């Protein structure tokens, strides 16, 4: 059934799955339905117009977008560059001033990096435990809230299905009563038509008999 409004046409499809049991009564109907569904699934390659377009993730962040594409393609993570953490000496013997200056600058960078790491470790040792406790508390609260919402949704789904079943059972009984009444009325109409045919035949016979008597 489809209904149209002034703004946008709305399609509504409904059935009585708790009441209609033709597929259980007649197995060949189920086979036909499965064949039709398989044919439609193979034929339809386009999505429904109401399905929104795919969401583009990390459109404003090229690095995260590239990483998402790498994970989606099942590509291995690129190896870490360990050269920047080493202290290479000049390659030539003896080294030039530029080579020794580059090696010295690299040593200063590595030393500063180790100092920052030491400071971060000290801060983590001092404040990290409490930070992890707070984070764990927030995660546990979020998990409990999510589980509570999930249970509420499950109860709502059960209630909706129960209400649908009760409604369909009630409507199904009405449909059965109406169908029985319709069958009885059709049978009565057929009996009346048969009686009319019999009466027409009897009237025609009497008319013929009257005409014969009139001639005599």
From TrEMBL:
InterPro entries: SPF27. It holds the Pfam family BCAS2. It is found in: Nucleus. Residues 136-216 form a coiled coil. GO terms for biological process: mRNA processing; RNA splicing. Keywords: Coiled coil, mRNA processing, mRNA splicing, Nucleus, Spliceosome. It comes from the Eukaryota. Its main location: nucleus. The keyword Nucleus applies. Signal peptide: none annotated. GO terms for cellular component: catalytic step 2 spliceosome; precatalytic spliceosome; Prp19 complex. The keyword Coiled coil applies. Belongs to the SPF27 family. This is Pre-mRNA-splicing factor SPF27. It comes from Hypholoma sublateritium (strain FD-334 SS-4).
């Amino acid at each position: 059934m489809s209904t149209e409004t002034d703004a946008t046409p709305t399609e509504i499809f409904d059935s009585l799955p708790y009441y209609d049991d033709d597929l259980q009564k007649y197995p060949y109907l189920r086979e036909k339905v499965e064949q039709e569904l398989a044919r439609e699934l193979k034929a339809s390659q386009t999505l429904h117009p109401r399905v929104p377009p795919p969401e583009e993730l990390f459109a404003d962040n090229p690095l995260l977008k590239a990483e998402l594409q790498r994970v989606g393609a099942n590509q291995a993570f690129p190896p870490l560059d360990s050269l920047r953490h080493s202290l290479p000496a000049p390659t030539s013997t003896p080294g030039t001033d530029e080579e020794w200056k580059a090696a010295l600058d690299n040593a200063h960078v590595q030393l500063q990096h180790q100092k920052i790491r030491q400071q971060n470790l000290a801060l983590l040792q001092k404040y990290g435990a409490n930070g992890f406790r707070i984070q764990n508390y927030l995660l546990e609260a979020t998990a409990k809230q999510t589980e509570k919402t999930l249970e509420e949704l499950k109860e709502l789904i059960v209630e909706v299905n129960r209400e649908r079943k009760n409604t369909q059972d009630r409507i199904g009984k009405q449909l059965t009563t109406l169908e029985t009444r319709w069958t009885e009325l059709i049978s009565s109409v057929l009996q009346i038509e048969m009686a009319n045919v019999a009466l027409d035949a009897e009237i025609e016979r009497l008319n013929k008999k009257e005409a014969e008597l009139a001639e005599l």
